C-alpha cells in the first residue's frame, strides 16, 4: 500500500539514515516570477540525491533469509549509490550491474558508499542491458532485485520528501514541481501531499528526449519510447512503472516537457547565482518555472532539486547546449574563395564587434577555387544573427547553417 500511514512509517525507518533536507527560499526567482519559490534540496543528501530514501526503505523490510541471499540492482547513477549506501548501513551484500560506458567517477562513488559490501559488474552498453543482466542474476542466485522506482516500498520511501515539505510548511503551498523518470518520486510525494491537502497541485517535469510519462498519460496506458536522450540521465527512462503510472494519472495536474537546452541554462544559472551544483535531471523542476510563470504568480511553489551528482567533465557540454538554446551560438559551413584576405574580409565585414569565432576548421585544397570551412560563432546578442546572415550574402559568402537534427551537429555538441 501507498498512503500517508505507510509513508509516515517509512519516515520513522529512515530516521538517522537520511538528512531532512532544507526548503531554501530563492529570492532571485521569487522576484522574477512574482511568487514564493522554494528549493527542496535533495542534492544535500549524503549520496547527493533522494534515492537513498527508497532504496533503504525497501531493503530494511527484507526478511533475514532475503538479507542472507543478498541484493542486486542495475543503475548507472543515483539509485546505485542509494543501494550501495543501504548495503553498507544494513550489512547486506549487494551486486550492482552498471553499463560498460559508465564514467569511472560514478563507479568510484558506488564503491565508496558500498564500503566493501558491494560488488560492481560492468555489463552491456545501456541501462536496459544492465537491467536484463541484473534480473537474470537475481533469478539464478536468489538475490533480491531492488527496483529503482516501480515498487511500493521504494515509493513510500521517496514519499517521505512530501511529508517533510508538508511538515515544514503546514501544507500552505500551492504547487510542487517534481522531475519524472519512472515516476517513483512523484508517486510517493503526490500521494502524501494530496491526501493531506487535495488543493496542492502537483506538476511533473520531463525532458523532450525522455518524456515517457507524458506520452503514457496522453495515450492512457503505460507506453515506451523507442529511444531516449540521456542528457538528463537521471530521468532517462524508456518506460514508466506499472505501479507509478495510475498514481500519476490520479494525482498529477499536468506534465511540463522541457527542452534539454533550457535545462542546461538552468544548471548554469543555479551554479552562478545560488552556488548549487545540480545535475541536469535535478534542475528540471526549476527549468519548468519559465513555462508556467503565468500559473504561479502570487503562489507558493516548491521545486524539487532531486540530485547534485554532476560530473565536472560534463560542464563544457552543458555550457554549449545552454548557449545554443539561448540563440548565442551557431555553426555554419562557409565557403571561402581560396585566395589571400578572405578570412580578414569575413572578420571585418561579416562579424560585429562583440561576435566571436569559437571554432574554425579549414583545409586548403590547391586544385579548387572555393573551399568550405566549419565555423562556430558565439554572439553577445542573439539578435545579431539576422545581420550576420545578411552580411554573408552581401559579401558573397555562400553558407549553410548546421541544424540540430543533422549528424554533424550531434558531433559538434
Strand order of the largest sheet: 1-2-10-7-8-9
Q: Which architecture of the largest domain does the CATH hierarchy give at level 2?
A: 3-Layer(aba) Sandwich
CATH class of the largest domain: Alpha Beta
Low confidence ranges: none
Helix count equals: 17
CATH topology of the largest domain: Rossmann fold
* Count of the separate structural domains: 3
Helical content class? 40-55%
The best one-word shape is: globular
- Kindly, what is the distance between the CA atoms of the first and last residues, rounded to a whole number of angstroms? 45 Å
Largest sheet: 6 strands, mixed
Spatial extent as radius of gyration = 24 Å
Name the average pLDDT.
Answer: 93
User: What percent of residues are in strands?
Assistant: 15-25%
Q: Briefly note the structural class of the backbone.
A: alpha/beta
Query: Could you give the count of β-strands?
Result: 14
Amino acid at each position: 500500500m501507498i498512503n500517508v500511514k505507510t509513508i509516515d512509517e517509512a519516515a520513522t525507518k529512515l530516521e538517522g539514515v537520511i538528512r531532512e533536507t532544507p526548503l531554501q527560499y530563492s529570492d532571485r526567482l521569487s522576484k522574477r516570477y512574482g511568487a514564493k519559490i522554494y528549493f527542496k534540496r535533495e542534492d544535500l543528501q549524503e549520496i547527493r540525491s533522494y534515492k537513498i530514501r527508497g532504496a533503504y526503505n525497501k531493503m530494511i523490510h527484507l526478511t533475514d533469509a532475503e538479507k542472507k541471499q543478498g541484493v542486486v540492482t542495475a543503475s548507472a547513477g543515483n539509485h546505485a549509490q542509494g543501494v550501495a549506501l543501504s548495503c553498507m548501513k544494513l550489512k547486506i551484500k549487494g551486486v550492482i550491474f552498471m553499463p560498460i560506458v559508465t564514467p569511472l567517477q560514478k563507479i568510484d562513488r558506488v564503491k565508496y558508499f558500498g564500503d566493501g559490501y558491494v560488488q560492481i559488474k560492468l555489463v552491456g552498453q545501456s541501462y536496459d542491458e544492465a537491467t536484463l543482466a541484473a534480473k537474470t542474476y537475481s533469478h539464478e542466485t536468489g538475490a533480491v532485485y531492488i527496483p529503482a522506482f516501480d515498487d511500493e516500498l521504494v515509493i513510500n520511501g521517496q514519499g517521505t520528501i512530501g511529508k517533510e515539505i508538508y511538515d515544514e510548511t503546514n501544507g500552505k503551498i500551492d504547487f510542487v514541481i517534481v522531475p519524472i523518470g519512472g515516476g517513483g518520486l512523484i508517486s510517493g510525494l503526490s500521494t502524501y501531499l494530496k491526501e493531506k491537502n487535495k488543493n496542492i497541485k502537483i506538476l511533473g517535469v520531463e525532458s523532450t528526449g525522455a518524456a515517457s510519462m507524458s506520452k503514457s498519460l496522453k495515450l492512457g496506458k503505460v507506453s515506451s519510447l523507442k529511444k531516449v536522450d540521456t542528457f538528463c540521465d537521471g530521468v532517462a527512462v524508456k518506460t514508466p512503472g506499472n505501479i507509478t503510472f495510475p498514481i500519476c494519472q490520479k494525482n498529477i495536474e499536468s506534465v511540463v516537457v522541457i527542452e534539454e537546452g533550457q535545462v542546461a541554462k538552468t544548471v548554469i544559472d543555479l551554479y552562478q547565482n545560488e552556488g548549487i551544483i545540480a545535475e541536469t535531471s535535478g534542475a528540471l523542476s526549476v527549468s519548468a518555472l519559465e513555462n508556467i510563470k503565468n500559473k504561479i504568480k502570487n503562489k507558493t511553489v516548491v521545486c524539487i532539486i532531486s540530485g547534485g551528482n554532476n560530473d565536472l567533465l560534463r560542464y563544457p557540454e552543458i555550457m554549449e547546449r545552454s548557449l545554443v538554446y539561448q540563440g548565442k551560438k551557431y555553426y555554419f559551413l562557409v565557403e571561402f574563395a581560396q585566395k589571400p584576405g578572405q578570412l580578414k574580409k569575413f572578420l571585418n565585414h561579416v562579424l560585429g564587434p562583440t561576435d566571436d569565432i569559437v571554432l574554425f576548421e579549414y583545409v586548403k585544397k590547391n586544385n579548387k577555387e572555393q573551399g568550405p570551412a566549419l565555423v562556430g560563432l558565439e554572439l553577445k546578442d542573439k539578435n545579431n544573427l539576422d545581420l550576420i546572415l545578411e552580411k554573408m550574402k552581401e559579401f558573397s559568402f555562400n553558407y549553410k547553417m548546421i541544424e540540430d537534427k543533422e549528424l554533424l551537429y550531434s558531433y559538434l555538441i
